[in-house]
Write a structure and sequence with these properties.
Blueprint lengths: L8 H12 L7 H12 L1 H5 L1 E7 L2 E6 L2 H9 L1 H12 L6 E6 L4
Helix pairs in contact: 2-5
Amino acid sequence: MTIRKEKAIGDVLKETLKKLISPSRPSEEGVLLLWGTAAGADAAKHSKPVAIKKSELVVNVDSSSWLYELTLRKKATLKGLEGKFGKKVIKNIRFRIGEIR
């Protein structure tokens, strides 16, 4: 006969959240929160991450001038995101003109 230990609901929730939120699988909300730090405050006002597809972060930008600026800063921005999520999680950033609401 096996005796099982009862766990507190708080402990079960913590374990479940750790499995769901891992550095190897960033949530879009997590990327949104870090975007301002990685891209810079001014750039964050003119851009918004909208999706992660096959290790590529898709970012909407509100004008062609910011599209150009962020494209120039892409390597530095990727390094900022690598610090949080690891090098293999987000391998590229694709900027496109779109809504940033």
